[in-house]
Specification:
Blueprint: E1 9-15, H1 19-36, E2 41-47, E3 52-58, H2 62-73
Antiparallel strand pairs: 1-3, 2-3
């Protein structure tokens, strides 16, 4: 049986040619997240093999996470 992830967390991947480009794109995203909810924390890691930045955003509650997702999805 698979365990459901934490509903307060959101995983994001940003693909780019290099880490600097990925971080620039990610910075816009995290700035928007913190603009909506200043309590957001993040953990970021660059996967050099996949040329992908992997980030986990942690919101204070699931409602804030859903609100942020909806701002992107329409």
């Amino acid at each position: 049986m698979s365990k459901k992830g934490d509903p307060r967390q959101l995983s994001i991947q940003v693909q780019a040619k290099n880490e600097a480009m990925a971080m620039a794109q990610y910075q816009l995203l995290i700035d928007q997240a913190r603009g909506q909810c200043p309590e957001v924390t993040d953990k970021v890691q660059w996967d050099a093999r996949a040329k992908c930045l992997v980030a986990t955003l942690s919101f204070p509650d699931a409602v804030e996470r859903q609100r942020f997702e909806q701002s992107f999805n329409g």
